[in-house]
Amino acid sequence: MVRSGRPRKADIDQRILHAVADLVVERGYAQMTVDDVVARAGTNKPAFYRRFRNLAEVVPQLLADRHGTDDDIDTGTLRGDLTEVQRRQRLLFTDPVVTRGFAGWLADLDADPAQDTPFLTGYLGPRRAYTRTILDRAAARGEIAPGADPEVVADLLTGPLLMRALLPGMPPIDDALVTQSVSAALGAVGITT
Q1: Count of Cβ atoms closer than 10 Å to residue 98 Cβ
Q2: How far, in Å, are 32, 40, 80, 124, 148 from residue 139 at the CA level?
Q3: Which of 19, 52, 120, 187 could be 57's S-S partner, Cβ–Cβ 3.0 to 4.6 Å?
Q4: Would you tell me which CATH number, out of the four given (1.10.357.10, 1.10.10.10, 3.40.50.720, 1.25.40.10), belongs to the domain 55-188?
Q5: pLDDT 10s digits, 45-54
Q6: In angstroms, what CA-CA distances link 159 with 60, 164, 166?
Q7: What are all long-range contacts of 69-73, with beta carbons under 8 Å and residues at least 24 apart?
Q8: Is residue 81 packed enough to be buried (19+ CB in 10 Å), middle (13-18) or exposed (0-12)?
Q9: What is the band of 1 on the pLDDT scale with cuts at 50, 70, 90?
Q10: 168: phi > 0 → left, psi -120 to 50 → alpha, else beta; which?
Q11: Rounded to whole angstroms, how far apart are CA atoms 67 and 78?
Q12: Is 173 within 8 Å of 90 (Cβ atoms)?
């Protein structure tokens, strides 16, 4: 089958992601336009819109590109796995792209909740689903009882870091917070030492 139109250039995807990241750090998400992105990426609006419906749809792919979806974590222990999740989340929530862009992006989603689907399916969903894998492995090893709630564990890990990343005047995300949030998550599944 012969496709009509121009062939899609794979490097444009990466150029768009890099342009968005650079512009968010320079200006903040709310001050960025598609025109700015395509100019920085050295492409055009049709190329952008073949890949994304809007700027909000770029964010999940950008986050996954920069921070992965955690589906490769397997240290051999539940404590080790959750600590690695938090180490990576610390990098995520201290990334200038997140600290400078998250509030503007959330405002975009609030204005049009239908835009959250790519974030849920392409980024947050897989990360949260992998929490179930981590807990199932821990149960299979006998570290915890089966049936631990992965949503609660994910919330206990992410909530404190998200709060410190987004709210002004909060202390920085440090090693103590990482340790305390892992301990809280372990406590929720019955590990108190």
Answers
A1: 23
A2: 46, 48, 14, 23, 9
A3: 52
A4: 1.10.357.10
A5: 999 999 999 9
A6: 19, 9, 11
A7: 69/123, 69/126, 69/127, 69/130, 70/126, 70/127, 70/130, 71/126, 71/130, 71/133, 73/130, 73/134
A8: buried
A9: very low
A10: beta
A11: 21
A12: yes
Domain locations in the chain as residue ranges:
55-188
Confidence of residue 107 (pLDDT cuts 50, 70, 90): confident
Instruction: Specify the pLDDT at position 7.
Output: 54
Radius of gyration over every alpha carbon of the chain, rounded to an integer in angstroms: 19
User: Among 72-81, 118-127, 147-156, which is the least confidently predicted range?
Assistant: 118-127
- First-to-last C-alpha distance (Å) of the chain: 62
DSSP for the chain, please give it: -PPPSPPPPHHHHHHHHHHHHHHHHHH-GGG--HHHHHHHHT--HHHHHHH-SSGGGHHHHHHHHHH--STT---SSHHHHHHHHHHHHHHHHHSHHHHHHHHHHHHHHHH-GGGGHHHIIIIIHHHHHHHHHHHHHHHHHTSS-TT--HHHHHHHHHHHHHHHHHSTTPPP--HHHHHHHHHHHHHHTT---
